[in-house]
Amino acid sequence: MQPALWHPPVELSNMEQAIVKRIKRAKLFIFLRQVRHQLFDDEFQTELAKMFDDKPKGQPPISPAKLALVTILQAYTGASDDEAIESLLMDKRWQLVVDCLECEQPPFSKPTIVRFRAQLIKRRLDRRLIERTVELAKQTGGFGSRNLRAALDSSPLWGAAKVEDTYNLLGHALKKAISVIARQQGRELTAIATELGAEIISGSSLKAALDIDWDNPEERSGALSKLLFVLEAVETWLEDQQLSVADNIEHNLKVARQVESQDVEVTANGTPQLRRGVAKDRRVSVEDSTMRHGRKSRTQRFDGYKRHVLADLDIGVVRAVGLTPANVPEAWVSDAISADLKAQDVTLVELQIDRAYLSSKLVRHRTQQLNIYCKAWPVRNRDGRFPKTAFILDWEQQNITCPNQITLPFEVGAKVQFPQSVCASCPLQPGCTTNKRGRSVSIHPQEQLLQELRQRQLTVSGRAKLRERVAVEHSLAHLGHWQSNRARYTGLRKNLFDLRRTAVVHNLHVWARLVEQAATTSV
Q: Distance between CA atoms of 108 and 99, rounded to whole angstroms?
């Protein structure tokens, strides 16, 4: 059966007033107590209640509004599921929000929180929590326009799973597979490993079991051979035994083969060795298949994800978030951001970005009403010779004119090569190019936009516009404070959920500030 709508008291009781007076920090507890009836009105509670199956029998489900409040408080305090249950029983601030003061038993169990989180993720209702806080913040601040001015930026999020080298990746995947076989047969791991000739992976340390000179290429190759032999032995043994292979056994064997295909190559004499360079989209963890190596800059490398935040420049709330593996370009988040904005029924009219997003669909497929603000790529220093900006581009005629008034047609995304004979006889040639084949100019796919950006940042008003992007950097810093820079979960989707609920915490703080400003103005 679906839960009944929750109608918590609005006015503070005497006991609640006493608790509120004692809360000096963590003011979000107080604000959530004050606005919980607005945040979870009947309409929104009915929407959340659709997560539950409408069964005629069984215990009445817990109010989804209470579970959502606990989910938000977990993001605010960093509490685990066990800590959340403990806080509901022992922390009066949590009891104040969830309306269970002086309870002797927690209002629900840990499995209830786990199931609620799974349903939020499955039905994408974690995004609705963001939308709900945006709606209320807009109403409080008096922002009624559907036109959105926003800024988009990203920051690293380190993965929660262990990052391992090729040897440990193979050993870890094989040990997990053999452990499942041992549990199925009710035997010890060491017994199965011995039967398979895989004693090296049954201990606590693979490197200790191998016990080789890691500076010796031949010994490293021998260690790889041993691990690949174990992999073949396990696969052969399963075939000979004609056992029904559990999904997790097959999964871990596929992980081992994936590691082999991306990291190992066979020499001319048939011995395996580590592949030179890094394979594209290389897997770095057994436990989390979505973690990747990434770089925020040339010197800053990280393993995990990139979190993306789109902040409303007028209200200050986070409108949308996205999460991508660390190795993909920032532009890949475009579809996720666009889908979130579409659900909010707004029109993006101004977007502040950094250069990493210039190739995104948000920019490439922009409408005429969307203005892009970004610091343009610097013009290449050509040792005093004519820069690219000295060439005039006629966008209507698709022509480019050099400083000597030679005109050629151009194509966007292609390179224009001025004829060798023309450049050789040109009086301006010494100040233009030293290339014997003549001067060439590349036309960027977003060349027209880049020209506009360069012109804009030469003006005082244009530079002031660029400084507005600092708002999204502040939002990212706030989210990093509550979420930290280390992922809570393994897997892309669960960590996107965590990012979304952290964005809800940020938006609640913005909403609280707008409420305070409205109250001050009315007085």
A: 13
State the fold for domain 147-158+290-375+466-510. Nucleotidyltransferase; domain 5 (3.30.420)
The set of long-range contacts for 285-288, using a CB threshold of 8 Å and a minimum separation of 24, is 285/159, 285/161, 285/162, 285/163, 285/164, 285/169, 285/490, 286/161, 286/162, 286/164, 286/169, 286/172, 286/173, 286/176, 286/252, 286/255, 287/161, 287/162, 287/490, 288/159, 288/160, 288/161, 288/490, 288/491
> CB–CB of 466/375 below 8 Å?
yes
Distance in angstroms (rounded) separating the CA atoms of residues 32 and 39: 9
DSSP of 318-370? EEEEEEEETTS-GGGGHHHHHHHHHHTT-EEEEEE--GGGTTSHHHHT--TTP
Give residue limits of the domains in the chain. Answer: 14-123, 147-158+290-375+466-510, 166-274, 388-444
Surface-to-core class of residue 467, CB atoms within 10 Å of its CB (0-12 exposed, 13-18 middle, 19+ buried): exposed
The length of the chain, given as a count of residues: 523
Question: Do 36 and 65 contact (CB within 8 A), yes or no?
Answer: yes
Q: Is there a contact between 438 and 417 (Cβ–Cβ < 8 Å)?
A: yes
Q: Cα(362)–Cα(344) distance, rounded to whole angstroms?
A: 16
CA-to-CA distance for 91 and 308, rounded, in angstroms? Answer: 33
Q: How far is CA 84 from CA 172, 213, 291, 323, 498, in A?
A: 32, 48, 27, 25, 15
Place of tokens 């305090």: 77
DSSP letter, residue 486: B
Write out pLDDT tens, residues 183-196.
888 889 999 889 88
**The pLDDT of residue 235 is above 80:** yes
pLDDT, tens digit (0-9, with 9 covering 90-100), for 326-350:
999 999 999 999 999 999 989 999 9
What is the predicted pLDDT for the residue at 523?
56
How much is the pLDDT for 58?
47
